[in-house]
Write a structure and sequence with these properties.
Length: about 325
């Protein structure tokens, strides 16, 4: 009996050690539900220093996270003290409206984005006509609350006041419009988050192929075990009406290209967190059903719920 208990303790200890990231979804959908739009807090286990990956919904998601005991403290303290910075994948409102609307109540922190996204923030959002400039560059008056950190393709930079480093990669979201992905590193473990993206074949692009080439060695070494990627529409959506998004079949098409670079065994068990499902009608459940029914690559699908913590290797 003692031996069994010891074995169980060792097993639990290994499992606990294997957890490298906590992800708390502040918002999960790709439209319509303004209180539940794309935003994901990523933190280290037992640490309250978060990087927010996109920021479509912030305050409502924080309150939901507190309600579900995924977050500790008041909504104000989470916003001001625990969120240390924002990665903004692209300039569409369902990925940044929460950042904009909560900026008066926020504290000083960093924004990480590729150059075209910073330009959108400077030229269209943080301006007097639509809001006011809470950032440290752009139209005067400059309030200087947010500091822009321009992500250069493939160049890693630290995310201050967090245990994370971040690398940006361009994506195509109705070519030539640019979205982006964030490769987040903690020690020698990685998590990949993609903003909106179309499939290379439809976008007539090579951005995903370039990204798969970059991460393939990390997947093979089991250093990257989780990808957060969008699937906006079910398979019935015509390809000419995807508007730079993925379906279950197109996700499989793209992950199959990654498999060619990693081998099937390396891809099996890879955690795929499905983001940005369009909430129209029964789309979310249909997308889930289609992904689970046809899983030739044997990846592990997770369908996030607002405010519910996901512990990841």
């Amino acid at each position: 009996m003692k031996k069994t208990a010891l074995s169980l303790f060792v097993l639990l200890n290994i499992v606990c050690k294997a957890q490298n990231f906590d992800v708390i979804p502040l918002g999960i959908y790709g439209g319509e539900q303004e209180d539940n739009l794309s935003a994901y807090l990523v933190g280290a286990p037992k640490d309250n220093a978060f990087l927010c990956l996109d920021a479509g919904t912030v305050n409502a998601g924080i309150r939901k996270g507190i309600e579900l005991k995924s977050l500790e403290g008041s909504a104000e303290s989470v916003l001001k003290d625990q969120i240390k910075g924002y990665f903004v994948s692209h300039g569409h409102l369902d990925h940044l409206s929460g950042l904009i609307i909560n900026s008066p109540a926020d504290s000083k922190k960093d924004i990480f984005a590729i150059a075209p996204v910073i330009q959108i923030l400077q030229n269209h959002y943080f301006i007097t006509d639509t809001w006011i400039n809470f950032a440290d560059q752009g139209q005067k008056p400059i309030l200087g609350k947010y500091h822009y950190n321009e992500l250069q393709e493939g160049t890693e930079i630290p995310a201050p006041k967090t245990p994370f480093f971040i690398t940006g990669y361009e994506l195509s979201h109705v070519n030539p419009y640019k979205s982006s992905a964030a490769l987040v590193r903690r020690d020698d473990h990685y998590l990949l988050y993609l903003g909106d993206t179309g499939a290379d074949r439809i976008e007539k692009s090579d951005r995903l192929d370039h990204l798969w080439n970059t991460i393939a060695p990390l997947v093979k070494k089991r250093q990257l075990n989780t990808i957060l990627i969008e699937v906006s529409f079910p398979n019935s959506q015509p390809e000419h009406l995807l508007f730079g998004h993925l379906t279950p079949n197109l996700l499989i098409e793209e992950l199959s290209k990654l498999k060619e670079k990693t081998g099937q065994s390396s891809l099996e068990g890879l955690n795929i967190v499905v983001t940005h499902r369009k909430p129209t009608g029964d789309n979310p459940e249909l997308i889930k059903k289609e992904l689970l029914k046809n899983n030739p690559l044997k990846v592990n699908y997770t369908f996030p719920e607002q405010g519910k913590k996901i512990s990841l290797p």
